Amino acid sequence: MVKIDPKARDLVSCRTTVNKHRSIGIFYGENPLQTPFSLLLLEMSLVILLSRLVRFLLKPLRQPRVVSDVIGGIIVGPTVLGRSRTFARKMFSDEGSFLVHNLGVLGFIYFLFISGVKMDLSMLKGSGRKHVMIAVCGAITPLVSVTLVALLFRTRLDHELEKGSSIWGVAASMSITAFPVLYPILREQNLLSSEIGRMALSVSIITDALGITFVIAFEAAKQGESRSKAALWHLVSLFGFIGFTTTVVRRAMTWVIRRTPEGKPVAQVYIIFILLGVMVMAFLSDFFGAAIANGPLWLGLAIPDGPPLGATIVDKCETIMMELFMPFAYASPKLLSTLLTAHFLEMPFRDSLTLSLIMSFRGQVEYLLYLHWVDLKMVRLPGFTLMVLLSTVLTAVATPLVSTLYNPTRPYMVNKRRTIQHTAPNAELHLVACIHDQENVAWLINLLEVSNPTLSSPVVVYALRLVELLGRASPIFIDHEKHEKQYGENTSYATVHSALKLYQETRGDYVRIHPFTAVSPRRSMYQDICELALVNKASLIILPFHAEGIDINGNISHTVNSCILAHAPCSVAILVDKGPQRNQCVTRSFRASSRHFAVLFLGGADAREALAYADRMAGNPDVSLTVVRFLTENYERDDGLEKKLDDGLVTWFWVKNEANEQVIYKEVVVRNGEETVSAIQAMNNDAYDLWIMGRKHGINPVLLEGLSNWSENQELGVIGDYIASMDFSSTASVLVLQQQVLRGQRMPASHSIC
């Protein structure tokens, strides 16, 4: 018999509890949905499938993942499918709801832990006055506004919500933009490396620092509502907890990194203990009266971001956390203050509006706060539902607006010519050279040697080391001349830049090298490259090409090369090292006492750029040059303007080099692509060390007729891809050039790629 206290005010219900852990099957007359574990498996499958389906349907609308997860949760919840009493009784019984709720909380805990691991607190030190002012004004204005409105209507609020601590907690949550919410949305929109994206991340970290202070004050005020001593003990225990995390735990993580050999992954046992520590920290933060997710967030902040430890943790658990647990977590003044502050600081209105929309994003952190308020009985379920819907709608509306208002590639669309062809003969030649590993240093130095740097026309190189962003959220752009002390001891940076520095010392005033490093996501690497070229008025971006796309060292992929070709503010050159013998090939091609280069001139802007670069190389006494111009029979299907421009440049080149015995010029007439390939194959006698050609723009289609199906790598063009392939039995390197495409002439790259 169950005895019920007659003084109890809460509703008491009696029900039968199923003690079976698994079903023996429907063929034995049992319903699998009556066993908790089988029910949990079905609920997990349903929630995840619905979230993925909604994400697929909303992808054309550029909606972030958090919106699709919330909508999926709404569909499964009482608003849609849950309206059916049979569905609700079968799928979300008391046992099922209990399990789903706890899985959602577990997802939130690990989500904030991973977000803490990715956060780079060093950005606080590097924040400028503009970032601080936008963050402070964007936080204080809504805080004061919401507080004043709440005080005016205080008599109409619920009993718990009218308390001063509750008003402060709600106002504080409305004033901050959480970094864990902002980062995944910016990553999905490919804005991490953009100017606005970097600013938004920096501002959000500052507002998070303010937000942690606000939350501590809110929790202390809540603890002090019953006894003032409780607030004091809460603060003492909390600061002790934070101190333990930032000292003992941080030192332990540093010890783990020291124990890990360079280039090797962190031992599995350390990762397991850290992931178990997440749950311990969650328990301790809940034990001390703080929000349950605070401990995991602080633990994440105590772990150094990036390789080896931070990157390993993110790699091990981010996918299962985001794909499996997070979907269960979902079954204004801020906009105006940020806009006005940014505009006051002389940011363009369009950029100010974009930043204010980004800082208005709401997501997982806000939903967790709303759940916390429900636990504290500050808000009821209708109010919780309304806040979740409003936050979701705000993010759903703001995200596509950001994509419409802000195009990170817009600054790269310039009208001024920045090409080798249009660079004055006695002017400095500015190049951006991309480096992925130590192997790339050799080809860069050799290419600089044959580029004929002189006192009257020196070469200025902006050497950009590209590193894929792993285990941290914020992209980093390092100018090693300004931050030599900070990054000089990092062996991954020092080896490359020491070699470049040594080469510069041997070349004196002929070559000047400025080393940089960009740590960014693969999808947005092209933005760092294009920005560096734009700021320094480069005439050429040089990229290495690897047939395998991206290797274990983080080399740039074909898709990123395509983005650079589509958005570069200057000309682009791609250097191909062929086959597994590419190191020996480069050495043989460039370090011989005399080098013989072949230029395949098929016409068009890209071919003219290739000839202009080859003309510069012809000034080197160790370089012999053979230029072969391909023409169609009776000039069939020639573009009149392109033909005129080609004739002018070829005539200028031949007049200039007519007396140079090391330069040979030939013309070949062909009728289709097969004859073009045959003529090129006839030249393949191992006499050439480097093949130079234009990519594709302006080529007479007759010259390529029947060859379109041969091309596998579009960034090299049809002829470049053929010569770079193994079918063309040559060990010589290949240099493919694309001349700058001016504003209004370029074809945008696919949104899914760039």
UniProtKB/TrEMBL annotation:
<dbReference type="Pfam" id="PF23259">
    <property type="entry name" value="CHX17_C"/>
</dbReference>
<dbReference type="GO" id="GO:0015297">
    <property type="term" value="F:antiporter activity"/>
</dbReference>
<feature type="transmembrane region" description="Helical">
    <location>
        <begin position="131"/>
        <end position="153"/>
    </location>
</feature>
<feature type="domain" description="Cation/H(+) antiporter central">
    <location>
        <begin position="459"/>
        <end position="579"/>
    </location>
</feature>
<dbReference type="Pfam" id="PF23256">
    <property type="entry name" value="CHX17_2nd"/>
</dbReference>
<keyword id="KW-0633">Potassium transport</keyword>
<keyword id="KW-0472">Membrane</keyword>
<keyword id="KW-1133">Transmembrane helix</keyword>
<feature type="transmembrane region" description="Helical">
    <location>
        <begin position="98"/>
        <end position="119"/>
    </location>
</feature>
<keyword id="KW-0813">Transport</keyword>
<dbReference type="InterPro" id="IPR057291">
    <property type="entry name" value="CHX17_2nd"/>
</dbReference>
<keyword id="KW-0406">Ion transport</keyword>
<dbReference type="GO" id="GO:0006813">
    <property type="term" value="P:potassium ion transport"/>
</dbReference>
<feature type="transmembrane region" description="Helical">
    <location>
        <begin position="198"/>
        <end position="218"/>
    </location>
</feature>
<keyword id="KW-0812">Transmembrane</keyword>
<keyword id="KW-0630">Potassium</keyword>
<feature type="transmembrane region" description="Helical">
    <location>
        <begin position="269"/>
        <end position="292"/>
    </location>
</feature>
<feature type="transmembrane region" description="Helical">
    <location>
        <begin position="230"/>
        <end position="249"/>
    </location>
</feature>
<dbReference type="InterPro" id="IPR057290">
    <property type="entry name" value="CHX17_C"/>
</dbReference>
<feature type="transmembrane region" description="Helical">
    <location>
        <begin position="165"/>
        <end position="186"/>
    </location>
</feature>
<dbReference type="InterPro" id="IPR038770">
    <property type="entry name" value="Na+/solute_symporter_sf"/>
</dbReference>
<dbReference type="InterPro" id="IPR050794">
    <property type="entry name" value="CPA2_transporter"/>
</dbReference>
<feature type="transmembrane region" description="Helical">
    <location>
        <begin position="383"/>
        <end position="406"/>
    </location>
</feature>
<dbReference type="GO" id="GO:0016020">
    <property type="term" value="C:membrane"/>
</dbReference>
<dbReference type="Pfam" id="PF00999">
    <property type="entry name" value="Na_H_Exchanger"/>
</dbReference>
<feature type="domain" description="Cation/H(+) antiporter C-terminal">
    <location>
        <begin position="597"/>
        <end position="740"/>
    </location>
</feature>
<feature type="domain" description="Cation/H+ exchanger transmembrane">
    <location>
        <begin position="48"/>
        <end position="328"/>
    </location>
</feature>
<protein>
    <submittedName>
        <fullName>Cation/H(+) antiporter 24</fullName>
    </submittedName>
</protein>
<dbReference type="InterPro" id="IPR006153">
    <property type="entry name" value="Cation/H_exchanger_TM"/>
</dbReference>
<comment type="similarity">
    <text>Belongs to the monovalent cation:proton antiporter 2 (CPA2) transporter (TC 2.A.37) family. CHX (TC 2.A.37.4) subfamily.</text>
</comment>
<dbReference type="GO" id="GO:1902600">
    <property type="term" value="P:proton transmembrane transport"/>
</dbReference>
